[in-house]
Amino acid sequence: MNLLSISILVALPAATVWAEEPPSISNAVVDYQAHQVNVTGSHFSPSGLPPTLAFARSPLTLVSFTDQTATASFPADFSPGSYLLAVTNSNQQTGTFSVTLENTPAPLAWDVDQKLRYHATNAFGPWSLAGSFAYAGLLQELNAPTEWGQGAAAYGKRLASTLACAGIHGVLAFGLDSTLHEDPRYFRAGSGGFWRRTAHAFRGTIMTHTDSGGETISSWRIGSAYGAAFLSNEWYPDRLNTVRLGFLQGSVRMGFDLVSNLASEFWTDVKSKVFHRN
After folding, report:
1. How far is Cα of residue 90 from the mean position of the Cα atoms in its chain?
2. Torsion angles phi and psi, residue 239, rounded to 5
3. β pairing state of 182-183 and 94-101
4. pLDDT per residue as tens digits for the range 44-80
5. What span, in angstroms and rounded, lies between the C-alpha atoms of 58 and 193?
6. What domains appear along the chain, each with residue ranges and CATH number?
7. Distance CA 90, CA 51 (A)
8. Which of 72, 127, 145, 209 lies 20 to 30 Å from 188 when distance is taken between CA atoms?
9. How far is CA 168 from the centre of its chain?
10. Residues 53 and 39 sit within 8 Å (Cβ to Cβ)
11. Which of 2-6, 74-78, 181-185, 219-223 has the lowest mean pLDDT?
12. Going by C-beta distance under 8 Å and a sequence separation of 6 or more, which residues neighbour residue 85?
């Protein structure tokens, strides 16, 4: 056996030991505002495959990773205390780290200008305008209401009605959440099972945060949804200006808000798992 062969044989056990090192966690920082935990260390992904993270034995949704770092969505409902964070790499080796949770700080309240910009964008932002043009086109195709007829003038009337309804909804929403000190934002759960997060999105539609960090019934959302529906029906033909139609339209608006919350809740996971984007 020559010297080269001996060197290779000596090197192989060392390489094997190095490759089998478990994850080593040097630090874990909880971002309470983003509902994420940022973990640093080594050997998280020795083969380039994503690691799995668990907090108090509850699996976390991975957001991004390298061999030295990992970021995962973090539950918002853990009580203050010390918990065990576990990182399992692609070799099925696990490293642990103790994380101490403090009292979660309330998100910074929006001022009146921020709320105004939020509702203005929701009413007349690019996507909202595109939706208004498309909805007016759908009403034109359905010839609804029939009293408005067809043609360019009829489409213009339907578009003006749709834009006016969006404007009324924005004014009511802004007036209510500013006056009642409610926060119009949706705050993701970020992790947990599908049904648990779906329930969180539903709750976030009916309930809302207050500027002081509490929680209350979403008066701004409910009032603006049904208020805009009833007020915008005032220029509709009398046969359509009914309590039944107003209630139906307000309920549809609440349903769209729920869909929006569900999209906010799960879109980050869809990007990460389907499109492999962070």
Report:
1. 28
2. -65, -20
3. unpaired
4. 988 889 999 998 888 888 889 999 999 988 776 677 7
5. 10
6. 3-101 (2.60.40.10), 112-273 (no CATH)
7. 6
8. 127
9. 26
10. yes
11. 2-6
12. 25, 28, 37, 39, 53, 54, 55, 96, 97, 98, 99
Calculate mean pLDDT across residues 181-198. Answer: 87
Which tokens belong to 199?
A: 């329930």
Per the listing, tokens 């995962």 go with 72
Tokens of 2: 């020559």
Beta strands across the sheet bearing 94-101: 58-59, 52-55, 81-88, 94-101
Question: How many Cβ atoms sit within 10 Å of the Cβ of residue 177?
Answer: 27
Show the tokens assigned to 188. Answer: 């993701």
Query: For residues 165 and 224, is the Cβ–Cβ distance under 8 A?
Result: no
Q: What is the pLDDT of residues 88-117, one digit of tens each?
A: 998 899 999 888 877 656 678 899 999 999
- On the question of pLDDT at 223 being above 90, the answer is yes
Q: Taking each helix axis as running N to C, give the angle between helix 152-179 and helix 126-142, from 0 to 180 degrees, rounded to the nearest 10.
A: 130
What residue spans of 143-242 are helical by DSSP H?
152-179, 194-206, 219-232
Range of weakest confidence among 71-85, 158-172, 204-218, 259-273: 71-85
Query: Is 229:246 a contact under the CB 8 Å cutoff?
Result: yes
Q: Which two tokens stand for residue 236?
A: 């509709």
Model pTM above 0.70: no
**Token pair for 233:** 């029906």
Q: Are 60 and 53 contacting, i.e. CB atoms less than 8 angstroms apart?
A: yes
* CA distances for 173 relative to 118, 120, 132, 230, angstroms: 10, 10, 18, 14
Contacts of residue 86, defined as CB under 8 A and 6 or more positions apart, other chains included, come to: 53, 54, 55, 57, 94, 95, 96
Residue 234 burial (10 A CB sphere; 0-12, 13-18, 19+): exposed
